[in-house]
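Narrative of activities, Objective 1.

The group set out to show that a structural description can be obtained from nothing but a protein's sequence at a throughput compatible with the screening campaign. Below is one input-output pair from the validation batch, recorded exactly as produced.
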Amino acid sequence: MSLPPTSPRLEQLRQLAAALPADPLTQYGLALEYVSLERWDEAIAAFDETLRIDARYAAAYFQKARALLRRGRRGEAAATLEVGIAAAEANGDAHAAAEMRKMREAIA
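Output recorded for this entry:
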């Protein structure tokens, strides 16, 4: 069994996330690093942690949906986008809401 891909940046982000467990930006950065390494399940978990810390973090919904799609989990991706659209609209972020609507329509 081969080990999942890693990077020095991943290790730095893991340490930073451990040091700043309540910082959504750090969790989001960790999630994006997992995405860049195509470690989808870990990326999804890190996006979930980002959203646990800050449920208004619209970009995390968008990126989580993308990761879910890479795992073939279309229904979960669509549900994530629904929640993300509502969060973006509540934040007044029309651009993020529109991007998530486009993605949702593409997978419907």
